Amino acid sequence: MRLFYQRLLTVARDNKAVSEGKMYDLEYAQSDNFNKHEQFAYLRKQDDEVLLFVLNFDDRAVDVDVRVPEEAFRYLEQPEWQNASAEDLLTGKKHKQMSLCSSEPVHISLPAWKGVILRIEETGKKKRQS
Fold first, then answer.
1. Residue 53 is part of a domain; what is its CATH number?
2. What is the pLDDT of residues 49-97, one digit of tens each?
3. Domain with 15 in it
4. Is the overall model pTM greater than 0.85, yes or no?
5. What is the pLDDT at residue 16?
6. Element (H or E) spanning 53, and its range?
7. Residue 49 domain-assigned?
8. The pLDDT value given to residue 125
């Protein structure tokens, strides 16, 4: 657990979305498979960086579906992405196929007493020609 919190503090120190970004609490938008007493989820955004935090304070592993409502996208001035990828800043694990949109929840497996900080990026976007 000490290594987990050490990595967490390093991510917080080195990441402007954590230290300066807007935050949007996602608790109210979650469905029945999300135990609001044991799990916590929120988004942070700074410039083009989007981070999804999902934490599990339960003593057992859980699978959760995190819903991001339309209001979150408006508040964060963030477009919805049908095609996205993510990297867990705590473990380096990559998630190559996902979406960040209000119509589809983000499915996450969480170990007991752990969490993820997903840096989410749009994929498949063509760069503009100048």
1. 2.60.40.1180
2. 999 999 999 999 999 999 999 999 999 999 999 999 999 998 889 988 8
3. 2-122
4. yes
5. 80
6. strand 49-56
7. yes
8. 60
